[in-house]
Specification:
- The complex is a heterodimer of chains A (444) and B (337).
- In chain A, β8 (117-118) and β9 (123-124) form a beta hairpin.
- Residues 1-25 of chain A have low confidence and may be disordered.
- Chain A starts with a strand and ends in an 8-residue tail after the last strand.
- In chain A, strands 13, 14, 16, 18, 19, 20 and 22 form a 7-stranded mixed beta sheet that branches. In chain A, strands 5-4-3-7-10 form a 5-stranded mixed beta sheet. A 5-stranded mixed beta sheet of chain A has the order 15-25-24-17-21, with no helix packed on it.
- The radius of gyration of chain A is 23 Å and the shape is globular.
- Chain A has helices spanning 9-19, 151-157, 195-204, 212-216; strands spanning 2-4, 31-32, 35-46, 52-60, 65-66, 72-75, 79-86, 117-118, 123-124, 130-136, 141-146, 160-166, 184-193, 222-225, 252-253, 258-265, 271-275, 280-285, 288-289, 302-304, 306-309, 314-320, 391-393, 408-414, 431-436.
- With 444 residues, chain A is mainly β.
- Chain B contains 2 helices and 21 strands.
- Chain B has a 6-stranded mixed beta sheet, with no helix packed on it. A 4-stranded mixed beta sheet of chain B has the order 2-1-4-7, with no helix packed on it. A 4-stranded mixed beta sheet of chain B has the order 12-21-18-14, with no helix packed on it.
- The chains are: A mainly beta (444), B mainly beta (337).
- At the A-B interface, β8, α2 and α4 of A face β16 and β20 of B.
Chain lengths: 444, 337
């Protein structure tokens, strides 16, 4: 027996009004403003294999260290001031190292009266001291920040984060061009850790001699999206048991929406980020539109099914999904039951239903397989009991439960498939699930 | 099918040959030698035995001692290049330039199981203490940036240090150009090169133009053109690992990969530079200052010590050389481009 989540289009419209007031509410967690105070502190990165690693993380003011650091969400043209305090403590008798921030893509400066001390790549905050950086967020886009002090060690230890510069066009645009409009956006800050380095620093402090061979030739065994390993990526943000990993990665969308993927290479390895479900159109790299000339928009954009995430670089891509091309009706047919009777109204001639974005040429085409009986299935938490969008079917006791709105789940993950592990335990690592729910189903 | 050539056709043919001779570009003739040298790590580590290309001293005696990548060769677009190579090493060597067409004559040997196997991509200079010299030549040089490297047992001889840069022409928008040659050294390969293999390749030293920054010290300096003048950055990777050269300053316009121009330039602050790749970019510095250039794959270690490795300062000179020197603007003791 099946029950439909949306009985009628009218209900759908009502639900849309109720739950879809702000399409950005799923948005990207972060802190906004023009003046930020960050501190470098220690913390713990918890991995789903039961382990935990020493973290050096950027904290928002007096808050806990974060991996990744707070996502700074700013507006184009603003002058951004970031004061960094060095509150790092280390094992042993040695003093804590200096820390700092680099802002690739920005032109950061420190004032002549700044208390920062000279470093090789930038001004640094001495232990107990601080440094203040200023830059103008001149160009919209997706950017990284990370430590400019011994980056091979300090980025590995966790000192990196994301910057989003909103364009003057408005918060629903990635850049100042209509072709960069989006309905939802998600951050995918990809990274990895080699636990040997964290253990050596935890035991011996930053002067550890054991750490050298690992830094020269790291061998990471845990991989992260937004600072979490799967399946923790899918849990809610700000989870008390993950005090230093506040961000999750749980993308959701409705069919027909434009989802902006902000993909950042935060670690030191390349990660081919493979997004099941549909291709994505890369519109920008390193915060610059793929434009043939200024103002042309993303006319050099191109589609991929795996985003090549390069360390230190950023990619903005638009992902869309409607079910087009499946060659069967994702909302079922009358032969599947009376509750699947529905219309496909294409008033504007774009081949899609004007409300649900159903692909009308496939309307009422049957799913081309004989659906198996529950006795012939093994279940995962995301199976709703039905093959059809927005529908819940009967499941054995204890099965399912992660997909209360009958959405479709697509794995988004590193295509370096060994990175789908947590210290050799599959599944995990650099992986999450995109959930596509029918129009009107709520997206938190 | 045979086709006879008419008298007129022959005359046209001769004319074409004459035209080709008349229009052939300038010739660059170079004499190099493959020699054994040493590289001294900046951290005081033990000197490392290297093989390298040097300007041919005419014999295998009285060689300079210190290793660097082979001297940069500057070819002319549509011109010819010939390199005459002397071999002062203990095994045959050869020269190839990936990306430039020429006739290759692969060299083979018979292994212990009687199988004929390729040893070199092309003809070799025998290991006869420099007695024989052999010439390699290329025609119709295509504008861009190339690696020249050993074509003999390259899995060993290239990591041993037998590589250098060839530049052909310069982009018309650029006033200057600079070679940025990335490579690595795994000392384990160099103790006894005859036994070396790259199965367990784990480099300890990460180099740009043969130099590895010493942690805690001022990075090596590379002349980076003049303020407000477009500079052509030529990135080459002679190593075995991927690097991501990143510039702390204005964006680059990436114009070509493997010396094939992109139909449109890409604006980025870094480039993906896998092994064997060359990338050309245009970069217009906007200050008379030092701009840091480093590997964002974080090969920024020197024998495991963080803060060194693939890190250089691109020193940009003043815009007009005849104006009196003005010190760069210092922010908090550090130049922050």
């Amino acid at each position: 027996m099946t029950t439909r989540f949306n009985l009628t289009m009218q209900l759908s419209a009502v639900l849309a009004l109720l739950f879809w007031v702000s399409p950005l509410q799923a948005g990207i967690d972060g802190i906004t403003g023009t003046n930020f105070t960050l501190s470098v502190k220690t913390g713990r990165v918890f991995t789903p294999d039961g382990g935990s690693l020493l973290l050096w993380g950027y904290a928002d003011g007096t808050g806990p260290a974060q991996y990744p650091g707070p996502t700074l969400i700013v507006n184009e043209g603003d002058t951004i001031t970031i004061t960094l305090n060095n509150a790092l403590t280390v094992a042993g008798t040695a003093s804590a190292p200096n820390v700092s921030m680099l802002f690739p893509g920005q032109r950061a400066e420190t004032s002549t009266t700044d208390p920062g001390v000279p470093g090789i790549l930038t001004s640094e905050a001495a232990p107990g001291g601080s440094v203040t950086y200023t830059f103008i967020a001149a160009h919209p886009g997706t950017y990284l920040y990370y430590s400019g002090t011994d980056p091979a060690l300090q980025v590995e230890m966790g000192l990196m984060g994301a910057i989003i510069v909103r364009p003057s066009n408005g918060a629903n645009f990635a850049y100042n061009h209509p072709d960069t409009a989006f309905d939802r956006e998600y951050l995918f800050l990809l990274s990895e850790m080699d636990p040997r380095i964290h253990e050596a620093i935890e035991l011996d402090g930053p002067q550890s001699t054991a750490v050298g061979p690992y830094l020269a030739n790291p061998f990471p065994v845990v991989w992260f999206i937004n600072g979490r390993n799967a399946p923790d990526t899918l849990d809610i943000p700000n989870l008390p048991v993950l005090p230093n990993q506040p961000y999750n990665s749980a993308p959701m969308m409705h069919p027909g929406e434009r989802v902006l993927m902000r993909v950042l290479g935060g670690g030191r390895d390349l990660h081919p980020f493979h997004h099941h479900g549909s291709h994505a159109r890369i519109i920008a790299r390193d915060g610059r539109l793929l434009a043939s000339s200024p103002g042309a928009g993303p006319d050099l954009s191109h589609e991929v099914f795996t985003i090549k995430s390069v360390p230190g670089e950023t990619v903005d891509a638009i992902f869309e999904w409607t079910g087009k091309g499946l060659n069967w009706d994702i909302y079922g047919t009358p032969a599947d039951g009376p509750q699947f009777v529905h219309t496909c109204v294409d008033g504007n001639g774009d081949d899609f239903d004007d409300t649900t974005h159903e692909y009308c040429p496939d309307h009422y085409k049957p799913i081309p397989v004989v659906l198996p009986d529950n006795l012939d299935l093994a279940f995962g938490g995301f199976y709703s009991g039905s093959s059809f969008m927005g529908t819940l079917g009967s499941l054995p006791p204890g099965e399912g439960g992660l997909n209360p709105h009958g959405g479709y789940a697509y794995m988004w993950h590193s295509h370096t498939e060994k990175e789908l592990t947590n210290f050799d335990i599959f599944p995990g690592g650099l992986m999450t699930m995109l959930i596509i729910v029918s129009q009107g189903a709520p997206i938190p | 099918m045979n086709r006879s050539i008419s008298g007129t056709g022959k005359r046209v043919g001769y004319l074409l040959v004459l035209l080709l001779v008349l229009t052939a570009g300038p010739a660059l003739a170079v004499n190099l030698a493959a020699v054994e040298r040493i590289w001294t790590p900046p951290d005081g580590g033990a000197a490392i035995r290297m093989w390298g290309f040097v300007e041919d001293p005419g014999s295998c005696t009285a060689l300079p001692n210190s290793w660097l990548p082979g001297p940069t060769q500057q070819g002319v677009v549509n011109g010819t290049l010939s390199i005459t190579l002397r071999n002062c090493l203990s095994e045959p060597v050869s020269l190839i330039i990936p990306g430039l067409e020429t006739n290759l004559t692969p060299q083979t040997f018979v292994d212990a199981k009687g199988r004929t196997r390729v040893r070199a991509f092309t003809h070799e200079v025998p290991a006869d203490n420099g007695t024989t010299v052999v010439t390699y030549s290329w025609n119709n040089l295509r504008a861009g940036t190339y690696l020249y490297q050993s074509g003999s047992h390259p899995a060993k001889q290239v990591p041993m240090g037998l590589y250098g840069a060839l530049t052909v022409g310069r982009n018309s928008a650029a006033a200057n150009d600079v070679v940025l040659l990335f490579s690595e050294i795994d000392p384990a390969l160099h103790g006894s090169a005859e036994a070396a293999n790259t199965k367990n390749y784990k480099p300890k030293y990460y180099l740009i133009n043969g130099q590895s920054a010493l942690p805690g010290s001022t990075p090596p300096v590379i002349a980076g053109g003049r303020n407000q003048k477009t500079l052509q950055l030529r990135f080459l990777n002679a190593g075995l690992m991927t690097h991501v050269p990143t510039i702390q300053g204005p964006y680059m316009k990436i114009i070509a990969e493997d010396s094939y121009p992109y139909p449109f330039t890409r604006e980025q602050y870094s480039v993906l530079l896998p092994a064997g790749k060359t990338i050309d970019a245009l970069w217009r510095p906007d200050a008379q200052a030092s701009f840091a250039l480093y590997d964002r794959r974080l090969s920024m270690t020197t024998n495991g010590i963080p803060g060194g490795g693939m890190l250089v300062s691109l020193n940009v000179a003043k815009k007009f050389p005849w104006i009196l020197y003005v010190p760069p603007i210092i922010h908090g003791g550090v130049v922050l481009p």
